[in-house]
Write a structure and sequence with these properties.
α9 links the parallel β3 and β4. This protein has 3 domains: about 110 residues, Fumarase C, Chain B, domain 1, CATH 1.10.275; about 250 residues, Fumarase/aspartase (Central domain) (Fumarase C, Chain A, domain 2, Up-down Bundle), CATH 1.20.200.10; about 60 residues, Ribonucleotide Reductase Protein R1, domain 1 (Orthogonal Bundle). The protein is mainly alpha-helical. It contains 20 helices and 6 strands. The longest helix has about 35 residues. About 65% of the residues lie in helices and about 5% in strands. Bound molecules: arginine. Arginine binds next to α7. Arginine (ARG) binds next to α7.
């Protein structure tokens, strides 16, 4: 155990910290993840101390050199972590002093761990959001690519998980594009509100030194400067925003996963995943399980509870910093890791999935997916009121069910018995799956023509997002 006088805050304490205090108080087991951001923040802070003449040039250079070495020590696995040193901030500062002595002890001038950790987390969110944006972009590219090769293939569209109407496979896939695109926009928003300098806020009220906040802001390439030191150290809204963006994404992924799971069952057999993205069973030799999809569906529960954790953590917390906030990082780090791996999982599944058109056509026919089209045909070509047309088609469907036939299979004679109007050459056209899709020729509809238009629009939008991502990256 560390001697009381070795604690960075030990001055006013007469006795040693107890083991329970150290064990419950430590965050090094998880906040070591912040080492890069902590060092980046400290370097900018040290430059400010040089500027306002708290540090001499020599001292600054010693600090700078040692901080860079510490970063390498951590990266090479040669850094020693000690529970007694609580968190990453104290580990780095204490190692700095160990290495260079007195100048190391000057680094914490005009800074509190409260503004330090608030800044580190904001830098972390910036770094990670950039990664997430790139991953989402690559997923969107894959969705467009897959859609392009599936503009002709037809599949059932569902409501109530009952066959509803024929849709183009590209239309189905592109529905994911727009949903995930909205996720990308949520991340851009989370990025922008997080892009803030909070250093200089001190413990809560500012610092007793002429810290040049504009200078540190430029050093750290941050867009804005916090207007209120209390809010700066107490707020975790930036964490909430990122966690929400992650939740929205995982909710979409969970729905996609659910469909992949259902569509790859023997009962549906609409799609199959390659062996490389599935697992077998240790007892049932025939099994091929869609584990990635199941795990992502499971992970959605996890990130939702992480957001919930943060909301509950913040509820009723008085201003400004409270130690409760130390645990914000557990949810944050976990959700970031989960969303990154999930994006990759969804991207690979979509890239690799194969559609089986015969099975899908079978379901469309067995589900009488063009019944509405047939009714509309009676309305527009035979001048029959819709309610009556609905009735005739209902009877035809019922006859098909009785005879175990589909709309294209039932005989001319049987059709005639229900209505004269079904006994025409146009009948086959009226129940055609492709024609049904192509009649949905409104903007945003499932017709073949609109698929090409939608792909163009998606590509256009993706270009726009690419520029936004580049702006974020090159700032
Ligand atoms: N490890 C702490 C955290 O993550 C750093 C801030 C400590 N501040 C304090 N007043 N004890 O929240």
């Amino acid at each position: 155990m560390i001697k009381k006088e070795d604690k960075l805050w030990g001055g006013r304490f007469k006795t040693r910290t107890s083991s329970i205090m150290e064990r419950i108080g430590e965050s090094i087991s998880f906040d070591k993840e912040l080492y890069k951001q902590d060092i980046r923040g400290s370097l900018a802070h040290a430059k400010n101390l040089l500027k306002i003449e708290i540090l001499t040039t020599i001292e600054f250079e010693q600090i700078q050199k040692a901080l860079i070495e510490i970063e390498q020590e951590i990266e090479s696995g040669n850094f020693q972590y000690k529970l007694e040193l609580e968190d990453i901030h104290m580990h780095i500062e204490s190692r700095l002093t160990e290495k260079i002595g007195l100048p190391g002890k000057k680094l914490h001038t005009a800074r509190s761990r409260n503004d330090q950790v608030a800044q580190d987390v904001r830098l972390y969110i910036k770094d990670e959001t950039k990664e997430i944006l790139k991953l989402i972009y690559s997923l969107l590219e894959v969705i467009i690519e897959k859609s392009k090769s599936h503009t002709e293939m037809i599949m059932p569209g569902y409501t109530h998980l009952q066959v509803a109407q024929p849709i183009r496979v590209s239309h189905y896939l592109l529905s994911y594009f727009w949903a995930v695109g909205r996720d990308l926009e949520q991340f851009l928003f989370a990025y922008s509100v997080n892009d803030l300098l909070v250093l200089g806020s001190g413990a809560l009220s500012g610092v007793n030194y002429p810290t040049d906040r504009k200078f540190i802001q430029e050093e750290l390439k941050l867009k804005n400067i916090s207007e209120n030191s209390i809010d700066a150290v107490a707020s975790r809204d930036h964490v909430l925003n990122l966690l929400f963006a992650i939740c929205q994404t995982l909710i979409h992924f969970s729905r996609i996963s659910e469909e992949i799971i259902i569509y790859s069952t023997v009962e549906f057999s609409f799609i199959s995943l390659p062996d490389s993205l599935t697992t077998g069973s240790s007892i049932m030799p025939q099994k091929k399980n869609p584990d990635i999809a199941e795990l992502i569906r499971g992970k959605s529960a996890r990130v939702i509870s992480n957001l919930n954790h943060m909301l509950v953590l913040l509820k009723g917390l008085p201003l400004a910093y409270n130690r409760d906030l130390q645990e914000d990082k557990i949810s944050l780090f976990d959700s970031v890791e989960q969303v990154k791996i999930s994006i990759e999982g969804i991207r690979e599944m979509i890239h690799e999935m194969k559609f089986h058109p015969d099975k899908m056509i079978n379901s469309l026919n067995n589900g009488f997916a063009t019944a509405t089209d047939l009714a509309d045909f009676l309305v527009s070509k035979k001048n029959i009121p819709f309610r009556e047309a609905h009735e005739y088609v209902g009877k035809l469907v019922s006859a098909c069910i009785e005879k175990k036939l589909t709309l294209p299979e039932i005989s001319l004679q049987d059709r005639k018995e229900i209505s004269e109007h079904f006994a025409t050459d146009e009948y086959m056209d009226a129940i055609s799956l492709e024609k049904s899709a192509d009649k949905k020729n409104v903007f945003g509809g499932t017709s073949f023509e609109r698929q090409n238009e939608q792909i163009k629009n998606a590509e256009h939008k993706l270009k726009f997002w690419k520029e936004k991502i580049l702006e974020v990256e090159n700032e």
